[in-house]
Amino acid sequence: xxxxxRPRLIEVAKRASVSxxxxxxxxxxxxxxxxxxxxxxxxxxxxxxxxxxxxxxALSNGQSRTVGFIVPTLDNAIFSRALQSMQTxxxxxxxxxxxxxxxxxxxxxxEAIRALLERGIDALVLVGAERARDAESxxxxxxxxxxxxxxxxxxxxxxxxxxxxxxxLATEHLLALGHRRIGVISLPVQHNDRQRQRVxxxxxxxxxxxxxxxxxWALERSTTAAGGRxxxxxxxxxxxxxxxxxxCVDYQAVGAMIEVQARGLQVPQDISIxxxxxxxxxxxxxxxxxxxxxxxxxxxxxxxxxIIGRLSKQTMPQxxxxxxxxVVRQSTAAIHHS
Length: 338
What we know:
- Among the domains are: about 1-60, 434 Repressor (Amino-terminal Domain) (Orthogonal Bundle); about 165-295, Response regulator (Rossmann fold).
- About 45% of the residues lie in helices and about 15% in strands.
- The chain has twelve helices and twelve strands.
- It has helices spanning about 10-15, 20-30, 35-50, 55-60, 75-90, 105-120, 135-140, 165-175, 195-210, 225-235, 250-260, 295-310; strands spanning about 65-70, 95-100, 125, 145-150, 160, 180-185, 220, 245, 270-275, 290-295, 320, 325.
- The radius of gyration is 23 Å and the shape is elongated.
């Protein structure tokens, strides 16, 4: 009886006693694998009849002309903007983009990396420098260009924004307006280096001003307006609430503003709110949102150009730092002393 089930890359790896990443490397960049291993893997591939479409293209011409991009979520427009910019830039050079979302879950990210490598991608773009050990191993053994975005990686080329400076800029703006009781709403900082660095920047700005951040004023919520609203409600219910809140993503700031207004209070007369990201939505709020501009479109474009350059054997910089800036609108004001 004929077995109609297509063999998977992981089955090839097990039969050949190598990692899935090594199988991918044999198929995509065989020159990077020693002769004995390459021969053993190829024999197993033939024996199992393993030929996914992406790999078939890689075998025929050395490139699949596809690039993988794994984002933490597609619910946040900052990643959608980077994705669109990356896709447009890659398409101009004949490359296609394959996208996966990890939903801020390291296990899901590891599986997404494995799946993209099985598709025979030529390069991979990642967000952040922290991931599970298995994911690190897969990426390290992939033998393809890897680009890290939003933060700096100690091994792979990086498109960087200064997340600590983002937190610092937002906080220094509030300090200059006379605020001393400043709270923060962020995403969970464990396994999220971007958010952790933003909170670190806030703490450092407070420390430089002789102040500290009480633990009760540092709340972790989801990256949604609902998360921002929940965090703001918790801060406003405190016996001594903050007079200003830094939200580490704009969506949280939107929710915080909604919560303030739902309680019959006013932004910024009763409480000032600052976001980080500069989503288009922010400038259309009432009042418009003060925020820190993060050039997400440029992040996607520069990551794509890095990949195109490296795949064409050009010498590319190991790190690129993109500028951020404070955008002052009407959601912040000098503290009101009664």
